Amino acid sequence: MHRQIASFALALLPMLAAAEPLPRFPPGAVWHQDISQAPLAADSASMIATLQGLGGWGNGNRLQIDFSMHVLHAAADAPTAPVAVGGDTPDCDAGFPFPLPPGGALEGESGYTCTGGGDCHLLVVQGSTLYEAYAANVAGGTLQSACALKWDLARAYPRHGRGEQCTSADAAGFPIAPLLFNADEVAAAVASGGDLGHAIRFILPNARMAAQAYVHPATHAGAPSGPAASVPYGARLRLKAGFDLGGYNPAAQVLLRTMQRYGMVLSDGGNIALTGESDRYTTKKWVELGITSLVFVTGTPAPKVTDFEVVETGPRLPRTNDCVRTPDDFLFIDSYDY
To answer: Among 17, 184, 238, 280, whose Cα sits 20 to 30 Å from the Cα of 70?
Structure first.
């Protein structure tokens, strides 16, 4: 029988979470595909122009970084809480035990109670399973959530992920934790002179995304309300090869090179464009690397929407919310021909 633990009891436990690598999918997964030479969408230029005309990045057209998400790592015997019924079905799941490692916390919080009115994402890795929840809150021994689900980290999902028209803890239907970046992996890439080896997550205000449509690898669209000529959910943006990296420190250059080689995928709605993991549990700290929330705002040149282009990933699909889950034995990789 799974052990259950209430949020007030968790607050009494010592800080036991430790630094671990961010979770990753197998090399064949779409997130690891090099798109530096991929063809552009036919309407790339017009989508970028439309987005720029709508105001560009959120929060004053700034390519800012949010460091409020935590990625927790749970031992096999970590306490668990059952997921209460809630959220979209069959997109999201309920009733399964969700691991809650001692000393963990929700996005933007110091523990497992959602108090600040934010998204309160909960991201936990246990073995080869990634558990993610949106609008999470632990109370009365259960995990309340607007959407909770599991990802199999040993699996290279097809282009339609967990299922066409299905959402996840991110509105695009994407996993969250594997698209983040943290101080440890950036430091390792600085040492090797490389990049992160995977696409990264970015978000835009709803009014700047094309309404009610998405492109693969997204499988859903949240509440976009912008003109059809703008970028849709799931769009993969690539930093132009000619962008001058010389005005940035080595750690920032790692992130910029990653945007050039693997791009960034439009995952959710909001104002702060990029999402890095907090350094609460990492060995390296962001201050050591010279990375702040405003590194791409005060740097020269500051990356503008017009410094990016949209890679071709397939046709737009209208949002219907008629989620059809991918069967668990559906394991082939259906990669778009870049």
So the answer is: 238
CA distance 192 to 181: 16
What's the rounded Cα separation, in Å, for the pair 214 and 171?
11
Distance of alpha carbon 54 from alpha carbon 56, whole angstroms: 6
CA 325 to chain centre: 20
CB-based contacts of 334: which residues, under 8 Å, 6+ apart? 158, 159, 160
pLDDT digits (tens, 9 = 90+) for 123-158: 999 999 999 999 999 999 999 999 999 999 999 999
**Looking at the chain, which runs of residues are DSSP E strands?**
65-69, 71-73, 80-82, 97-99, 122-126, 129-134, 137-139, 142-144, 147-152, 163-164, 200-204, 213-214, 236-239, 264-269, 274-277, 308-311, 317-318, 324-325
Q: Tens of pLDDT along 221-234?
A: 999 999 999 999 99
Identify the three-state secondary structure at position 29: coil
Helix and strand totals (H; E) in the chain = 7, 18
Instruction: Give the least confident one: 2-6, 83-87, 305-309.
Output: 2-6
The pair of three-digit structure tokens given for residue 84, joined into one six-digit string: 């209460």
Find the distance separating the first CA and the last CA of the chain, reported in whole Å: 47
Question: Using CA atoms, how far apart are residues 238 and 257, in angstroms rounded to an integer?
Answer: 10
CA distances, 234 to each of 77, 174, 265 (Å): 36, 9, 6
Q: What is the Cα–Cα distance from 181 to 145, expressed in whole angstroms?
A: 24
**Which 3 state secondary structure label does DSSP give 267?**
strand
Q: Which is it for the CA torsion 168, 169, 175, 179, positive or negative? A: positive
Residues 113-125 have pLDDT tens digits of: 999 889 999 999 9
Place of tokens 């430790």: 18
